[in-house]
Amino acid sequence: MKNLFFLLSLFATTICFAGKKDTIPANNPNIEYTGRIDFTNPLAPVFSYSGVSIRACFVGTGISMVMTDDTGQNIYNLIVDGKEMDTVRIAVGKKTYKIAEGLENKLHEIEIFKRTEQMFGKTQFFGFVTDKRTRLVPIVNRRNRLIEYIGNSITCGYGNEGKNGEKFGPTTENHYMTYAAITSRNLNARHLAVCKSGIGIYRNYNGPVTGNADCMTNLYSRIFLYDENPKYSFAEKPDLICIDLGTNDFSTVGGDSARYVDNFFRLIDTLQTRYDKPEIVCLLGPMISGPTLTKVRQYLNFIVNRANEKGRGSVYFFEMSQQTGDLGIGVDYHPSVAQHQKNAAELTGFIKKLKGW
Fold this sequence. Notes:
Low-confidence stretches: 1-19
CATH architecture of the largest domain: 3-Layer(aba) Sandwich
Number of strands: 17
Number of helices: 7
Helix content: 25-40%
Structural class: alpha+beta
Radius of gyration: 23 Å
Order of helices and strands: HEEEEEEEEEEEEEHHEHEHEHEH
Number of domains: 2
Largest sheet: 6 strands, antiparallel
């Protein structure tokens, strides 16, 4: 009878232990953050740009995360051991979301990746929730390279998960499947995206000929595009910066070449001031066509040549293939996932040759 009582007590203790949860705070040193993130409160960092990544390794069978969103529209990819396992839309209000469960009790890598852009609001991360036997460990697959992408809707992935004629929304946008994110994965690099649909170097989509005050050149140094503070620290220097801007400046009648060139120089000056002799690639493609394509190509080559004369860092030009429709067309004539994959293969090859990666 005593043995039976002992076994029942042991079983009850085991069940109770297994049910206990442990909270891993957001400032745990084994968590890797990539992107423009406000760490004013290190226990609850906030972010809004596409492609923000939270990555960690743990030993155990499952793990969850605690997050809130200010609009309830942002969607995240949940990546476990390098595979996209699921997506989750973050609701308004602090909630716990399951990332993985029922895994083999061994080392696993997880990544939370923001697939939607800043127009859908801000998200706040509070850390992970695990059982008591699960622990975070240092990341094994270190990504020691960092590529920064500055762009518009193409870089955001606007409409790449939908078809032309459909309505744009958060479910049709997937930054994880853009030329930028795919190129970074091809090169085992972390990547930082500063992008917004409709934005231009000096003139946003269908903006006035004289330009828009909220163009990328004017707002680039912020953590949140439309918040004057906090400013971005520029503490980590990227190994390469890719700029894909100009489509909106010339997408409707009224683009001013002089203003475009002047503001492009100003953005390059900002990058060269913030970073010590950065390597910059000025990208062209894939939505511009016809005479406009010829003109913008000329402008970019002029910008690259003049920028290199200053000797403040190497600047290059690379043109991605224009979309023709044979790979499908996304929402509002934007590149499809297949077009992004094609452009990523082209850009990957260019960077490999340029950097020797």
